[in-house]
Design goal:
single chain; 380 residues; alpha+beta; Butyryl-Coa Dehydrogenase, subunit A, domain 1; Butyryl-CoA Dehydrogenase, subunit A, domain 2; Butyryl-CoA Dehydrogenase, subunit A, domain 3; two-stranded antiparallel sheet; 11 helices; 53% helix; AcylCo_DH-like_C; AcylCoA_DH/ox_N_sf
Amino acid sequence: MLAGDLYAFQDLLSADEAAVVERVRAFLDDEVVPIANDQWQRAEFPHHLIKRYAGLGIAGREGSSLLNGWLALEMARADASMATFYGVHAGLAMGSITMCGSPAQRERWLPSMAAFEQVGAFALTEPTGGSDVAAGLRTTARREGDEWVLDGAKRWIGNATFADLIVLWARDVEDNQVKGFVVRGDAPGFEATKIDNKIALRTVQNADITLTGVRVPEADRLQNANSFKDTAKVLRQTRSGVAWEAVGVMLASYEIALNYAKERQQFGRPIAKFQLVQDLLVRMLGNVTGSLGMCVRLAQLQDEGKYRDEHSALAKAYCTTRMREVAGWARELLAGNGIVLDYDIGRFVADAEALYSYEGTREINTLIVGRAVTGESAFV
């Protein structure tokens, strides 16, 4: 049981699901955690681990939303960068094909992606468009016979420097609707350039993408992605995963702070004996517990078919806000030691900033929830 799971939420998993979680946790502890700081510092991706992820047998695996959420938690608890890699591949890319592809397309791509024989990326955000991407998408798609010609640019695309398949969203010049395409990473006219000098998720290979007359056959257009409403269905599903990842970062931060407090000696005793330190730890644990409870209920709503946009939006906005607090408090507890990678917490503090922003900023998610509760849209 995790130290931060005070209310034993993990007990809600079935025995089989709990076994999967324990197997994944052991893999992360053995393979990911020992190299996480080094990979992060060098801003390099551990490509040797891709096949090891395949061996876990979890990508594309049918399971409860609680299990899938808990796996996202475990991955972020080990390393938010590798959680993002997995979320982009198995969540955004495979999720787009699952939700928006035809049966033939799902059969063609998903088995090899589940086996990590082909790695996926998801290209929506653009250099000049983030929160306004629904109306402001500028990448264009023009049909010519049995092919589509794509032109434009994308930014912040995780996995893009080495992905085999990129789910890319472009606006059809004929009907002005956003459509989805599966573009091969080696397609002529497709170029992905790594974004350097990041201060968060440094292990993730984010890229700027340029598309210059990239030709995609009609067979590679996602057949059930015909407007941004279809794109939004994917985002709604994966946004909940970011909330779970935020809880994972909180759990890691809390565990680091708790262990440090028990070991660090000041004034002849461990700082865990100090009232103010215990107060800080309890505040952290409260954020963890409240956020984890929200995510568990979110998973139940998903499995009950009662899941709505505002549910994932509130969870993403709330949990990532609490995550920043917990990571910051943990860094505070470690004092000067908290700013060096040797004590781990610095990486989580930095990575929390990226999770706070991606999959919809707090402000945008607030407006989604606000629209739902008031019946009035405040979007410009």
